[in-house]
Amino acid sequence: MARLRAIWTAFRHQALHFFADPQWLIPNIIAPFVMTLVALMLFRSTSGNVVLYAILGGGMMGMWGNTLYASGFSIQSERWWGTMESILAVPTPLIWIIAGRAIWNSIIGILNGLFILVIAVTVFQTPLNLYDLPLFLMAFILTLISLACLGLVFSSAFVLTRSASVLTNGLEFPIYVGTGTMFPIALLPFWTHPLAFTLGPTWGIDAIRYAALSDYSWGLAPGYWGDLAIMGLLSVCYLVIAVWLFKQVDYRARRDANLGRY
Amino acid sequence: MADYVANPLRVFWSSAVLAKRALFAWLSPAMWLMQLFTMSLFSIAFFVYVATYVNNPEVSVAFVAVGNALQSVAYVSIFAVCNITGEEKEQGTLQALLVSPANRLSIFVGRAMFQIVNGLATVVIAFFYAAFLFGVDFSSANLLTLAAVVLMTTFAMTGFGLMLSSLGMYLRTSMVIANIFLFIGLLFNGVNFPVSYLPAFLQPISYAMPMTYGTEAARAAVSGASVMDVTGLLAIEALIGVVAILLGYAMLRFFEHLARSKGTMERLY
């Protein structure tokens, strides 16, 4: 019960922060939004499913951008404000506080993804003919949960570095490239494929495309359900890693007593 | 003593040195190097693979790789430079800076000097990636012209960043405009597709930004054009850079006046 209360309070706190300064939504979504528009300009001589492929990728990038920025900057902000030590010193483990924030960020991530879809569809007038809407929604929500789990891993790692904002900026494009948000990962060099396969969003966007596109020919071998199963497994791994990392971070922070100076 | 404090050249140099020290006070050299070597790599890779997948005959891999290699300077000249004033606000040092009698133009321009060096290094590395990782053919490139283009683009984009930095003094945070102008360049500057792809009413925006001329000149240099061939493009780019610096300086003075008269030094927005 105490943990649920901590999650709820952290969720509410994060929401209040967002409403106090909603302009932070812009840095989170501007990159994916512009990159989707660039891709749509390049796709302008094509139509139908190829364009939808790009729009779905843009939505995915919007969700990832939000997850990454939210997990990176929420920790960095605590450090700037000098509240990091207080948060770590309370009896509630840090992971439950971060989990509450991650849930709020996921909700905003849905808005980001939908915002990009709506703009792309209305401005570029691409019909959003989804092949299987229930499967699409299921893949969309599960991918978002997977992103939140990945965000937890990054959040825990960011506690131990003053360079969280640099890492946040630096990790944005590698994930866009590695997960094949806008192109099939078959185009990437073969040696990068194992790295791509360890990222939940790689499987998530593939499942989303299986559900959305009727003639999806670039799909990964496991298919829709296989993609979701692998993504689920990876998400559990992320959670286990995040819990372990948070314990390590907590121990190191108390032992070294230099949390604000990392 | 007053002359010593107000000496514009001394203030300029101090400002440049302090800006570099301030950067490395919070950013470790290892992290800076990581940023330097990876930022452009993944942004070029992203658009190169998109172009490969799209297979648009008008937009070749070389077109995209050269455009994005030059555009990588924006991560430094737009993003880092634009955030200078915002960071002063964030860290509470803006008031101390503005009550000093130091020459404002020297402070204003001096703080961006290290970022010019940083930007040049970023672009050189990015062109290295374009040549050796993404297979752009530089065999007929005029390297002297390319160097002139890189130098001029870095200067002009830093001027543009300084102008945005002044705007950041008025806003609650400069991060928002830094992000907007960093990324809309990908759309407006002819980096990933010809400017003619844009609707006609949007094209004037492209031609008001220095990078548009830079990307065109860079592609010409890679094709073997001489410095004389791209003089016109470089002249316009330089002009926009100078105008941006002057406009930025005027905005800085105006917002400083506004902040002093209203007593809202760090609360303007």
Unreliable residue runs of chain A: none
Helix content of chain B: over 70%
Number of domains of chain B: 1
Mean pLDDT of chain A: 81
Radius of gyration of chain A, taken over Cα atoms and rounded to an integer in Å: 19 Å
> Biggest interface, and residues per chain?
A-B, 35 and 36 residues
H/I helix tally of chain B: 13
For the biggest sheet of chain A, the summary is: none
* Total DSSP E strands of chain A: 0
C-alpha geometry of chain B: elongated
Question: How would you portray this structure in words?
Answer:
With 262 residues, chain A is mainly alpha-helical. Chain A has one domain (44-256). Chain A contains ten helices and no strands. Chain A starts with a helix and ends in a 6-residue tail after the last helix. The relative contact order of chain A is 0.14. Chain B has one domain (2-262). Chain B starts with a helix and ends in a 7-residue tail after the last helix. Chain B is built from 13 helices and no strands. In chain B, helix 3 packs antiparallel against helix 4 (61-71) and helix 4 (61-71) packs across helix 12 (210-222). Chain B is mainly α and 269 residues long. The interface between A and B is large, with 35 and 36 residues.
Could you give the topology of this structure?
The complex is a heterodimer of chains A (262) and B (269).
Chain A: H1 2-20, H2 25-42, H3 49-81, H4 84-89, H5 94-124, H6 133-158, H7 164-178, H8 193-197, H9 200-212, H10 223-256
Helix pairs in contact in A: 1-5, 2-3, 2-5, 3-5, 3-6, 3-7, 3-9, 5-6, 6-9, 6-10, 9-10
Chain B: H1 2-6, H2 8-26, H3 29-54, H4 61-71, H5 73-91, H6 94-99, H7 104-110, H8 113-132, H9 143-170, H10 175-188, H11 203-207, H12 210-222, H13 231-262
Helix pairs in contact in B: 2-7, 3-4, 3-8, 4-8, 4-12, 5-8, 5-9, 5-10, 7-13, 8-9, 9-12, 9-13, 12-13
